[in-house]
Amino acid sequence: MNGNEMMAMFHLMEEHRLILSIDMLEGDTQVEELRDVITECPNLKIAIGHFGMVTFPGWTEQIKLARYPNVFIESGGITWLFNDEFYPFKGAVRAIREAAGLVGMEKLMWGSDYPRTLFFQCYFRKLSALMCRKRGKSVFLSYCIYFIVHHPSFTLLATKIQIYPLFL
């Protein structure tokens, strides 16, 4: 991230007053690299996405980068990362409070993957209910599962099928 070509791009973005919206690897893996960018490009506005990958160890190190005046934390994906909890997402609420304590609420930006989370949870609950009622093979259900696993927009959903053994 902080190689010569990337740094040249970040300087260009800073010069043209563009915003860097970045989703980092889990935990603190890339924190020092981004800190290099932040200190070298102090006027480059940066939005760290997915609330610092909040459900992984070391997430607060990403949040702490928002202590720099040009860095903010974007919360899109937070309901997805806590989707196993469903509403009211108590873990997400705790994480938001913790992050606000670290950097201040004014550094936290609204973002939402809630439509994706809601679709995922409702869709799989409905499929599960259908499988419980039918207890047999269903062309419709087979097609839906195939679509979810193979559709490019839903590649992450494929891993969730393991959590729903009724489909197998």
Mean pLDDT over the residues: 75
Q: Shape, please?
A: elongated
Oligomerization status of the protein chains: single chain
Number of strands: 4
Our Rg estimate from Cα atoms comes to 20 Å
SSE series: HEHEHEHHEHHH
Total helical segments = 8
Unreliable parts? 129-168
Main sheet specs: 4 strands, parallel
Cα separation of the termini: 41 Å
- Share of helical residues: 40-55%
Largest beta sheet: strand ordering: 1-2-3-4
Strand content: 5-15%
Q: Structural class of the helix and strand makeup?
A: alpha/beta
Question: Helix and strand layout, with pairings?
Answer:
Blueprint: H1 4-15, E1 19-22, H2 31-40, E2 45-48, H3 59-64, E3 71-74, H4 78-81, H5 90-103, E4 108-109, H6 114-134, H7 139-150, H8 157-160
